[in-house]
Amino acid sequence: MKIMLLAYEVESYSMCEIAHMLEQDGHEVWIINCDYYTFIDDVSVQNWYSEHGFTKWTNYEEEYRKLYTKEYRVDWEYLKSFEKRFCTDKNLQQLIMTDGILTRSHHHRTPYCTPIKSNDQLYYWVELQLKWCESLFNKINPDVIFTIGLNYFVKNVMWQIASSNKKSIFALMTTRIYGRLYLTENFGYGTSDTIRAYIDNDGIKVDEMQAAEEYIRHFNDSLFSTDVGTPLEKMMQGAWLNPLNILRNLIYMNIRTLFNEIFKKKRYRGHFRSNYFNSSILLTTLYSFRISLNQLRFKLNNPCTTQLPSMPFIYMPLHVLPESSTLTLSTEYYEADLIRFISKE
Questions:
Q1: Is the dihedral angle over the CA atoms 60, 64, 66, 71 positive or is it negative?
Q2: Which CATH class is domain 2-200?
Q3: How far apart are CA 307 and CA 283, in angstroms?
Q4: What is the pTM of this model?
C-alpha cells in the first residue's frame, strides 16, 4: 500500500517513526512537509530524517525559491480549474483562509509576518503550492493519507484533492479533554460517521461525560481552559502574568530572535532582509514588546472580570483558526465570513 503522511513542523519527528513502522510492514511511505519552518528556520527535521535513514520525504522549498526568481504572473485559469476540479468542501478563498500566514486576518502570527507585496504575489504563491500538491498526489498516487490535525493550507488542499479522487484521508484530532484523541475520516468537518456510530452504539461513558462537564466548569477558573489540568496550565496560571517573568520572556524572545536571524535562518533576500511569507526581525521585536505590554495591561485590568452589558448582545467567539470551533466536533466556520454575513442583515 502507498501511504502519504502530511507533517507540519515538529510533527515530522513522530511521522518519521510512524513511517519506519509502516515500512517494516511492507508499505511504501512518503512524508510531505507542509511548512516553511523546516527549511527556512531550522533544518533539524531534515537532519533527523538523515540520521534515521529515511529518504522518501519532500518539502516545497524549490517552489518557494521561485518567489525570488520570477515575476508574479498568476495563472488565473489554473486557479479556476483547480477550484472546479477539486474544491468540494471549500472554495479556493476558503482554502486560503485556513492558513493564517496567507490571509493575515485571524491568526496570532499576523503582526510579525513580512508584509505581502501585492495580491499577485499572494496568488502566485498559492498557485505554486497548488501545482506542487497536485503533482505530488499524481506522482505518489497514495492509497491512503494520514495527518495530525488540520494545519494549514497544504493539508487542506490535499484533503480536497483526495476527496475528489475518492481516496481515504485520516486525521488524528485532539479533543477538549486532556489526553483524549480521535481518528476521523472526514478531516474533522462535522461529526464523522465513525464517531457518530460510536456514540449511537456504545453511548457516552460516565467518565467521559464527567470530563466534559469539568472542562466547561473550568472556564470559570482558568485563563487557559484548553489546557485543563495539564502541567502547562498550572505553570501558566502562576507565571504568565508575573511582571518579572514578563520581563524575562521579553529579553529571551529578543535574544532568540537575534540569534536565529544571524546564525540559523536561511536568507533568500540577503542578511537582515525579511523572507517572503516569513517573520521579520523588526516586526518580531515590536511584537514581543506588544505582547509584554498586553500582559501587564491584563494583569492591571482583567477584562474577564468586567460585568456583562445589561442590554441584549451577541457573543461572537473570535478565536484563531483552526481552534475556533465551539465544539470539538462542530463544523468549521470562518470568522471573517460570519462578520460579513451578519453585517449584511
A1: positive
A2: alpha beta
A3: 35
A4: 0.82
